[in-house]
Amino acid sequence: MNVVVVGAQWGDEGKGKLIDILSRDADVTVRFQGGNNAGHTVCVGDQEYVFHLLPSAILHKGKVCVLGNGVVVDPQALIEEINGLKKKGLMVTPQALKISGHCHVVMPYHRILDGLRETKRKHKIGTTGRGIGPCYADKVSRCGIRMVDLMNPRVLKAKLEDNLREKNEVFHKVFNHKDFLFKGIYKEYLSYGRTLAPYVCDTVLFLNEQIDKKKSVLFEGAQGTFLDIDFGTYPFVTSSNSIVGGACPGSGVAPMKIDKAIACVKAYTTRVGGGPFPTEFSARLEEEIRMKGNEFGATTGRPRRCGWFDSVLVRYAVIVNGISDLAIMKLDVLDEQPKIRICTAYKYKGKKINVFPMDFEVLNRAEPVYEVMNGWMTPTTSARRYKDLPRNARAYIERLEKLLKVGVKYVSIGTKRDQIIVR
Ligand code: IMO
Ligand code: MG
Question: Among 148, 241, 325, 387, which residue is least crowded by beta carbons within 10 Å?
Fold first, then answer.
């Protein structure tokens, strides 16, 4: 069985925890897009692990993790992540990690440009500053540098020289920024190439061989549907296709080979960075939920914006991703709310809108239309079976199923591995 897991909101839905659980039954776990803008948290006992580039399945011995060609790799960040695990006693071997030679490489000028572009924007995206956008832009502009290039000094030299010739002019003339010097970057990136060479291979052939042998592959989406470059709240999005469909171009596995798509949602909504967010809480409730849910970015530490569950938004995600099962995460964060709201429509210029609008001006100005449910006012963290949940919590979940037209298979009620209900 080959399964794709994606986020159905604006990222941080709890994909890391779900992947950690599902990857026990998978032979291979693949990241197919994004880079170290992602922050996937997995708690094992008292240890907390945050993964940015490595698939969250790396903690399971004997399993294979893959960085598919759709991922953009900051080699320095990746090496740090591998070394960090080594310090915790976990060796990442070339048997356990395979990196596509076609992954585009995040260069120092990408990180700098990411920050400089933000300073020039009136409406800031609030990027993670990891150079993700500029790296993907170079990929599409056909001047990117790929992992294989780091292992070929002659090719790297030619590509880096070409890039610096053009980029230094832009940095100088547009941003009044000092030049990037060829020699240092060239040496640094050749050295990354030497360190990472044992992990680099043709992951397309590897993945398809595994699928032919009836092994199961789990695709780990990063970010979320509304951060998708095509379907998200553009331009307040990331630069890759974070929907289920992105798994194919990002890994070289054909769509016919994918059996199922699962979406992760939070029992409420969060977003980091700029952009529309109709159901955003008032300041007091936001602060309360942020503290209860520990809603601070796993990558940048920024406080996350928080709001009620938006079923108009998530229904669109269910459609665009072809979702068959939902995982509702962090239900326990709502344990002490006497009243819980669900957004079921938007009101704009006196009209009720039931579907996710094309024009985000509507999203910016819309008033959410809420349905109010009674809270359960009982701790849910020790529930292990669906029937252990308080009646009102079940009613909330079942109402969401109805609004979203899809079943909820997993309910997470805490950060620990065993705090999950499988229906
Ligand atoms: P995970 O995988 C939440 C957001 C940034 C910003 C926008 C663009 O942990 O869910 P970028 O650096 O990608 O160009 O920033 O996207 N963003 C995320 N928000 N979780 C993430 O990943 C995110 N990755 C990017 O905050 O608004
Ligand atoms: Mg995150």
Answer: 387
Q: What is the pLDDT of residues 335-393, one digit of tens each?
A: 999 999 999 999 999 999 999 999 999 999 999 999 999 999 999 999 999 999 999 99
- Identify the sign of the CA torsion 240, 243, 248, 250: positive
Domains of the chain: total: 3
Atom 5 of ligand 1, nearest CA residue: 127
Residue 177: active-site member? no
- pLDDT tens sequence across 230-275: 999 999 999 999 999 999 999 999 999 999 999 999 999 999 999 9
Full residue range of the structural domain in which residue 145 is found: 105-195
CA of 134 to the centre of ligand 1 (A): 14
| Domain termination residue (choose one: 261, 282, 304) | 261
177 and 243 both lie in a single domain: no
Mutate to test the pocket of ligand 1, among 42, 223, 295 (most ligand atoms within 8 A of CB): 223
Pairing of strands 305-307, 269-271: antiparallel
Q: What is the pLDDT of residues 131-185, one digit of tens each?
A: 999 999 999 999 999 999 999 999 999 999 999 999 999 999 999 999 999 999 9
Are residues 137 and 182 located together in one domain of the fold?
Answer: yes
Closest CA to 65 of 13, 36, 26, 25: 26
d(CA 227, CA 403): 22
The pair phi, psi for residue 342, each rounded to 5°, is -125, 130
- Asked whether 330 lines ligand 1 (CB < 6 A), one says no
